[in-house]
Prior knowledge:
It contains five helices and no strands. The chain is an all-alpha fold and 109 residues long. It has a domain at 11-82: 434 Repressor (Amino-terminal Domain), CATH 1.10.260.
Amino acid sequence: xxxxxxxxxxxxxxxxxxxxxxxxxxxxxxxxxxxxxxxxxxxxxxxxxxxxxxxxxxxxxxxxxxxxxxxxxxxxxxxxxxxxxxxxxxxxxxxxxxxxxxxxxxxxx
Length: 109
């Protein structure tokens, strides 16, 4: 899975965040694949509903990467489900706060 890097962070913090994002995407893909199997919907049917090729859906449900959240939501909806996204606060231990990481350039108003 291709995950965008947190290029503004040091390697340790960026790597940890990259791994978190990859894990969350993998969990979403696995959940969608389970729903498709449970509903008995073929890749061809799902692709027809979404106006794309079965191969595209197969790749989305296997590889992920560079796919918008909207695409995942559309797959869920085509399977008969609505999606709720829950944000959980992450305990980052000693990671710097975003206010201390980003360099801000004051603007004259």
